[in-house]
Design a protein that fits this description.
Helix content: 25-40%
CATH superfamily: NAD(P)-binding Rossmann-like Domain
Number of strands: 7
Distance between the termini: 31 Å
CATH topology: Rossmann fold
Number of domains: 1
Largest sheet: 7 strands, parallel
Bound molecules: NADP nicotinamide-adenine-dinucleotide phosphate
Shape: globular
Strand order of the largest sheet: 3-2-1-4-5-6-7
CATH class: Alpha Beta
Length: about 220
């Protein structure tokens, strides 16, 4: 299976890379600027591609003709702690987080969809429960919540549009995971989250197109 993963140099993206290499798959790992943990992996089934997901992809030659699985994992939180509360949130922060967390995955799918269609493959968009309105009891986090909510909606439209071509699209919530994004303070390890999400991906036909599913298999209302 040909697997392409964005934001693959650290955190969950790196966890996905290790999982699919372990499974024997061919992996195209995208990184923004620093190869990070990818540099330490020695495998002839791993190809590294530099791609800031907010920019057009320029080196088509590095891509496979068919992509069986595209994982839109790259994302940012934006200012942490109280930096996104009602008093402090700024228009430029709203725009910056939206640019990466919603427009970025859309840009990636627009660039790669023909390859996924040729494989009748699967697209997994990594959102967050923080993008669920029904799960929002604590407020704040304006930019991250809004951008991840928008990604759920965008992902649903992709699911409907690409179903016509035999492509499955699912939206995932990784859980609260020990990565840089959470300051390593999450509740679960990367391996636990990746194991859950990859299990969902491998059973994607069991879910409605565009479903929003947490790493533990629970449907996330949105
Ligand atoms: N950790 C959690 O508990 C949690 C919970 C819910 C959802 N998520 C989502 O899961 C995904 C992965 O999160 P994580 O915890 O692994 O975060 P992370 O450790 O902060 O890693 C984020 C990754 O995204 C990449 N990235 C950011 N902006 C990019 C851009 N413009 N172009 C390409 N790559 C870019 C980063 O690359 P650089 O190294 O170059 O910055 C890095 O590889 C994110 O979408 C996040 O929102 C995480």
């Amino acid at each position: 299976m040909n697997v392409l993963i964005t934001g693959a140099n650290r955190g969950l993206g790196l966890g996905f890379v290790k999982h699919y290499l372990q499974q024997g798959d061919e992996v195209w790992a995208c990184y923004r600027s620093d190869t990070g943990g990818l540099a330490g992996i020695n495998s002839n089934r791993l190809r590294l591609l530099q791609w800031d997901i907010c920019t057009p992809f320029e080196n088509d030659a590095g891509l496979p003709d068919t992509i069986d699985l595209l994982i839109n994992n790259a994302g940012i939180y934006g200012p942490a702690k109280d930096g996104q509360n009602l008093e402090k949130i700024m228009p430029e922060v709203m725009r910056q987080v939206f640019e990466v967390d919603c427009i970025g995955p859309l840009n990636v799918v627009q660039a790669l969809k023909d390859r996924v269609i040729r494989a009748k493959g699967t697209i997994a968009n990594v959102s967050s429960k923080m993008g669920s309105t029904s799960d929002n009891t604590s407020g704040g986090a304006y930019a991250y919540r809004a951008a991840k909510a928008a990604l759920v909606i965008v992902s649903k439209s992709m699911a409907v549009d690409l179903a016509l071509f035999g492509v499955r699209v699912i939206t995932l919530h990784p859980g609260w995971v020990k990565t840089d994004m959470t300051g390593q303070s999450g509740l679960i390890e990367v391996e636990t989250s990746v194991s859950g999400m990859t299990n969902i991906i491998s059973h994607v036909d069991d879910y409605e197109p565009g479903s929003f599913i947490a790493f533990d298999g629970q449907e996330v209302p949105y």
